[in-house]
Write a structure and sequence with these properties.
Radius of gyration: 20 Å
Structural class: mainly alpha
Shape: globular
Number of helices: 14
Low-confidence stretches: none
Order of helices and strands: HHHHHHHHHHHHHH
Largest sheet: none
């Protein structure tokens, strides 16, 4: 036990500042190029470089790029970062690489809370609080029913999450059936995942705060992700770390849902792919997943805006079309092992 634990700790210690700097630099470069492409393409032929032309289209191009495409681009980066961060933290909390806010019902719990608050007519703060409470409650239910340290199995955990997500979907449908006509269309489109008109400011602030909160804990989270016994053997405050993860994952999921609706699979695909490329160390994985999550969702939004332009697809639908095959592939790989 001690030898195995020591080997794992040594493997995590191999992360070098050069590798961290190189990885994050590459991701930032890809993010910058993706932003340039995102603000340059859309359902019209207007482009950012037309700002400086002396033509009647200059003002229109400025409005389209600065008022429509740029806020939507930032929203995609923020929501993708929140979902990827939530997925990474849930995978550590439940010690299951298939954990994801969408699959385990966390996003579903947040959407039920948000829809209920919308029906009751409360303000934006109330909607966010209700979404956060729903997300936290769903995480606790999954952990209590299937995530106990000494009894959890991969199948039981996934089945519990899928069942909870289905239950939340049924409750959401019930709430939609009770919604007045004036709210129904907007609520349905929001549930499918929509970045048009999303307000990213509060999500961006919370994303930065969460990163500043959990990144310094990466060493402890690395050990906690191995096993509860490892954490206890090294004297870590396991309960405190667990509650930090509960609230951080729930808050990130809730903000993502209230900003852009139900968007799945970002929290599953991004951390999984990054682990294959850069390893398990959360000191690098946490910031890298946040950046990569934003990039993935931004490209999904670009596809949603341009695939059948001028019509736009809900970005949640595009992510589901891309995410379901990826999830089934990952599930089959784990079954083979």
């Amino acid at each position: 036990m001690q030898t195995l634990l020591g080997n794992k700790v040594m493997n995590l210690a191999r992360l070098t500042p050069q590798k961290t700097l190189l990885t994050l630099s590459i991701l930032l470069l890809v993010l910058l190029l993706s932003v340039i492409i995102s603000v340059s393409v859309g359902s019209t032929s207007l482009r950012p470089w037309q700002f400086w032309y002396d033509s009647p289209e200059s003002a229109l191009a400025r409005d389209v790029v600065l008022e429509l495409r740029l806020p939507r681009t930032v929203s995609a980066l923020v929501v993708g970062g929140l979902l990827a961060l939530a997925g990474t933290l849930q995978q550590v909390l439940l010690r299951n690489p298939l954990a994801d806010p969408y699959i385990l019902g966390t996003s579903g719990g947040a959407s039920v809370g948000a829809l209920l608050a919308l029906l009751l007519g409360v303000g934006t703060l109330g909607v966010n609080a209700a979404a956060g409470a729903g997300a936290l409650l769903s995480i606790l239910i999954v952990f209590l029913l299937a995530g106990r340290d000494r009894s959890s199995t991969q199948t039981r955990l996934l089945l519990t999450g899928v069942a909870l997500a289905a239950f939340c979907g049924a409750v959401s449908s019930l709430l939609l059936s009770m919604a007045p006509d004036g709210l129904l269309r907007g609520m349905v489109f929001w549930l499918m995942g929509d970045l048009a008109g999303a307000h990213w400011q509060s999500g961006a602030a919370v994303l930065c705060i969460l990163l500043l909160l959990v990144w310094p804990l990466a060493r402890e989270l690395n050990i906690m992700g191995m096993s509860a016994e490892s954490a206890h053997a090294l004297g870590l405050n396991h309960q405190r770390l667990r509650w930090v993860l509960y609230f951080a994952a729930a808050l990130a999921s809730a903000l993502a849902v209230t900003t852009a609706g139900m968007i799945g699979f970002v929290g599953l695909i991004v951390p999984h792919a990054l682990r294959l490329l850069i390893g398990q160390d959360l000191r690098l994985l946490l910031p890298a997943a946040t950046l990569a999550g934003g990039i993935v969702l931004l490209w999904a939004d670009i596809i949603a805006r341009t695939l059948i332009a001028p019509q736009q697809l809900p970005v949640g639908v595009v992510m589901a079309l891309l995410g379901v095959p990826a999830f089934l592939y990952l599930l089959s790989r784990r079954a083979v092992r």
